[in-house]
Write a structure and sequence with these properties.
Number of helices: 7
Shape: elongated
Number of strands: 0
Structural class: mainly alpha
Helix content: 55-70%
Distance between the termini: 39 Å
Order of helices and strands: HHHHHHH
Radius of gyration: 22 Å
Strand content: under 5%
Length: 118
């Protein structure tokens, strides 16, 4: 396969099929064929980034999901994150997520900073 920039959905599917066949052959990553697969994967990723972008999650929704996963209630955030009213306003998007609070959520709830700062 001659590698080129992927411009159509048909080309994209051909690259996916070709890469899948290469994986089935279990080629070595450091071989010439393996290098070609790596380039094909980069071309596939570039096409996907343009045509199938992943939306950035809403930071407050991520905080709510993490709280649910950890079994936390709004009242569990009172004190560290502010008063009961402030926590409620923050989680209902009536108050902004500040940089200080983003750092605190990152540290306390292990939410990636990239998500909180999006």
């Amino acid at each position: 396969m001659e590698l080129k920039i992927i411009k159509t959905k048909k080309q994209y599917q051909e690259y996916l099929d070709w890469v899948d066949k290469q994986f089935d052959r279990r080629i070595k990553p450091k071989s010439a064929e393996g290098e070609k697969v790596q380039v094909a994967l980069l071309l596939i990723k570039q096409y996907e980034d343009v045509h199938y972008p992943v939306p950035v999650p809403d930071p407050i929704e991520v905080i709510k999901l993490k709280m649910q996963d950890l079994g936390l209630k709004n009242k569990d955030l009172v004190g560290k994150f502010g008063s009961k009213g402030y926590v409620s306003a923050l989680l209902n998007k009536r108050k902004p997520l500040t940089l200080e609070l983003a750092k605190l959520f990152h540290r306390e709830l292990s939410i990636p900073a990239e998500v909180l700062l999006a």
